[in-house]
Amino acid sequence: xxxxxxxxxxxxxxxxxxxxxxxxxxxxxxxxxxxxxxxxxxxxxxxxxxxxxxxxxxxxxxxxxxxx
Length: 68
Known about the structure:
Elements: E1 2-15, H1 25-37, E2 39-41, H2 45-56, E3 58-67
Antiparallel strand pairs: 1-2, 1-3
């Protein structure tokens, strides 16, 4: 099922890679914008969060989405 992210909040203090570099405010905004502009293939909230975290390397705090 295709999902569209309407709103997302990342935890930019923790990431999935211990060697991940620090991120600028501009970088944070770019990741949020990219996440909202993509259609995600996922079955539910959990698989959507997993896909986003795997793609960007930052943990998701909250996400609001709709089914397309």
